[in-house]
Structures are given as structure tokens and as C-alpha cells.
Amino acid sequence: MVLLAAAVCNKQGKALISRQFVEMTRSRIEGLLASFSKLMTTGKQHTFVETETVRFVYQPIDKIYMVLITTRNSNILEDLETLRLFARVVPEYCKLLDETDVLKNAFSLIFAFDEIVALGYRESVSLAQIRTFTEMDSQDERIQIALRQTQEREAKEASKRKAKELTQMRKDIAKLGRGMPSGMGGMGSSASSFNTPIVESVRNEEKPTSSYQAPKASTGKAMKLGVKTKDVDHFVDQLKSEGEKVMSSAAASTARTPATVAEAASQAAGRESVHVESKEEITMLMKRDGGLVGDLEITGTLAFRTTDENLTKLQLTLGSGEKQCNIQLFPKFDKAKWLNEGVATLKDPNEAFPLNIAIPLLRWRMSSSDESDIPLAINCWPSEAGKGCTVNVEYVLNDTALELNDVVISIPIPQGTGTPIVGDLDNGQYSFERGSLMWKIPVIDDTAAVGTMEFTTPGGNPNSFFPIRVNFTCGVSLVGVEVEEIHTIKDEEAVKFSTEHTLAIKKYEII
């Protein structure tokens, strides 16, 4: 069979688009299509019509005709089979099936025609393969656009963080001057208060400095912080005589605790004065034919810190999400108020939070045997094909409210089989690294909740492609535990806060 050309004509036989598959002049194809329009006026209702040199095989599709021009000695059965495939391709790109719609999608139709016929001979392709081949370029373009948008978004966020860092650094310098705070006691597990008395000195540079010799170490009892002894009084007098300004314990208890101004600025970069940090770790083993091995387990912690001395007495409204999990509150908080109102406050209303210290708030653990709780399900169907294997891999985002980032699906490839040949790929890109096929997807959300990839290998068996390992990140809690609102205790004024969530994949495998 030699296919000379494929054309789409209107009911009057006028050619709308035409694609030649052999060397033909424009005048030649226009003359053939003009003769076809004259043959159509004879009233014949056959699916083909012949002239002295060529055969026209045609099929009406609503307001248009799909016409193939072949040689007279071609196989009519193959001609009709090819015509049916062309007739199925046209509605894929033209929904209205009229002249305007055909002209609007002319290039898409020509690209699809090229996938069916090459140099006059039909290719062994299906409608699904034609759709995949014609969309490959657009898929790569979408990936590049998504990557460029991600880079632009990251650049904007980096500039905002830098601006906040410089602003916070100026505030820190204004508050701390040029002094170096000596530190502050952390929040221990004992029943003592958060505030630990310290001695902080700030050098007065207006006064000249003189050499200072430290007193010899005493052989008696060690000096205890917060307990006035003769050695302490003598040491304080020496500091004052050298131009040091000594702060009292009461005043120092409200001071900031970073070791240097630079450290304070770096910690506050890109964050609000009240910053909430949550961390989760997920463990999951799934059978290749479905079902969990053991239970899906997610553990997490939530803490916060404040860097503003005016925001040390706060109450936090907590959300526990829709999923059932075991949540524990830190002992220093009022458990009854948390259970009844969902609000976390300290048991002692007069007690304040320490500055620049991560204050633990919640920890939780979720254990489930329900497959619907799996955030990202992976289905793999390897099958033998001749001497090799064909593998179809599918991901499904069960919770479309989530947005998973930097997803990597690692599929082991049998040794000695070489680089796998990837055919269909719905989303992302792939690479062959360290004996594994790495399917990398920048973002999986509700717009790309399902994706597939198909590849072949010249060797191996269906058991060679396991275990499949998965890694990803997520900017929100998988369980749904979060801080919804923060208010001051005194006047219940809303406090602006920033959040940060990190996810660690302890084990996420399909075996």
C-alpha cells in the first residue's frame, strides 16, 4: 500500500487541509482533489471511487469528509483500515467537526497524520500512541515552564527573606547595641520557671579601657550564679571600675539569649517574631499487589519560639486535623483548656515564655492499616514481553488537598540489562542513576493527582523491579496538626506568625 495524500474536505468537496506523503507538486494535489469533488456529485454512496490513476477512499464525518488518495493497485482492505484510524483521529482535535474547527486545529491534525503514515506507508500505531507522540513536546514545555516558575518564586522568596533579615538585624543591633549576651538558661524538665537569672555586661565605649587582671581562682567554694558572695561583689566592683555596665538579674531575665548579633539575625531571617516549627516522620511498607505490610506510621512534633520580648505571654489555638492520632501536650501547658477549647496556654498565667528558645508544644503518633491514609500510592505492573519486560508504573495522590514536592520514585533495574527505554511519561522527567530508574516529579497536587510511566528492558523478570523506594517533601502536616491562631493573653490581640514544616521519609517502599 502506498498512500499518496490525506485530506479533509467539506461537503462540497473543497479541500480544507491536505498532507502529502510522497513527492507531489501543489498543482497535482489540487487537481486530484478537484476531480474528487466532481466525482462526489454523481450521487454514488460508495466508500471509495477510482479514476484512471488513483483511488479516493473517503468517509463522511458530520459536515466534513476524510479523504485518502492511494494508488489503484493498493489493498482496499488496508486502505479502509487506515481510513478508519484517520477518521478516529480527526474528532480528537476537532470537537465541532466543521470548517472553522478544522482550520483552527490544522497543524495538530497534520502532526497526527505524520504519526500514522511515513513515506507513504502506514505505521503500526494506535490512537493512544498517536496522542502520546504528539503531546511529548508540549509535556517537556510544561515541565520547563513549571521549573522556571519555581525558580522565579524561589528568587522572590529569597529576596523577601533577605529584606526581613536586614530589617531584623537593624532591630537586633538597636536592642543589643554592641554587647555580647552571656547566655540564658534553657527550659529544663524540672518544675522551675523558664526564667533563669543571668549576669550580662555591655561595654561602655565612651570610657577609656585599662588593663584588667582577673582575680586568682579561689580554693574555697565555687561561685554560684544568683548567690551574692564576697567574691561576686568584688568581681562586680572590678567590672564597674573598668567601665562595664552590669545588669541586674531581674533586668537580664528579659534580655535576648543569642551569643552574637549575627546569630540572632540569621535565626530570625525570613521568619516572624513568633515562628512555629513542626516535624514529621513517615514509615510505610506496601505490598506490590496492594495492602500494607504492618501499619502506616506517622510521628511528629510541634514547637515554637518567640524573639520579641513583648510577645512572651501567648495563647495558641491548635488544630488536630481530621485523621485520628494520639496527641500529647507538653506538661507545662494547661491540658484541661486544651481539651475543652483547643487552646494551649501555660498553667501559670503570670509565667512568660523564654526568648529565642524552641518551646515544645505537641507530639503525636498516627498508626493506620487503612490504605486510604497512604499519601502517595504506587502501583507497578511488570510483565514479560519476549526476552525482556514491560513495566507500567502509576502514582495516585490519595489526599488531593496535599501538595507533594521533589517526588522521586526509584525503580531498581536488573543488572546487565542496560539503560531502560522509556515510552509513555505523563508527568516529570527521568534519569538512570546507580542501577535505578529515577522518576522525578517536581510537584504532585490536585492538578496532577495521577501519573503513569511505561518503560521496557531487554532482560530481567517481573520480580527484578522491586523494592520501589519513594521520597518526597511536604510543606504541611500529613496528619493535619497545626497552629491555627496565636493571640496575646493580656488583650487577646492577634499575633502574626510564620510556620515551617519538615518531613522525613524513614521508609517508604513497595516490596
Which features would summarize this protein structure in a list?
single chain; about 500 residues; alpha+beta; Beta-Lactamase; Immunoglobulin-like; 4 domains; nine-stranded mixed beta sheet; five-stranded antiparallel beta sheet; 9 helices; 25 strands; about 25% helix; about 35% strand; Coatomer subunit delta; protein transport; ER-Golgi transport; membrane; cytoplasm
The gist of it:
This protein has 511 residues and is an alpha+beta fold. The protein contains nine helices and 25 strands.
Description of the structure:
- This protein folds into four domains: 3-125, Beta-Lactamase (2-Layer Sandwich); 130-177 and 233-270, no CATH class; 274-372 and 478-510, Mu homology domain, subdomain B (Immunoglobulin-like, Sandwich); 376-474, Mu homology domain, subdomain B (Immunoglobulin-like), CATH 2.60.40.
- Helix content is 25%, strand content 34%.
- The protein has helices at 26-39, 76-93, 99-104, 106-116, 127-176, 230-241, 249-252, 261-268, 335-341, and strands spanning 3-10, 15-20, 48-50, 54-61, 64-71, 117-118, 121-122, 201-203, 244-246, 274-286, 296-306, 314-319, 326-329, 343-344, 359-368, 376-385, 388-397, 404-412, 421-425, 429-433, 436-444, 450-457, 468-474, 482-488, 497-510.
- The strands form six sheets. It has a nine-stranded mixed sheet. Strands 2-1-5-4-3 form a five-stranded antiparallel sheet, sandwiched between helices.
- It is elongated.
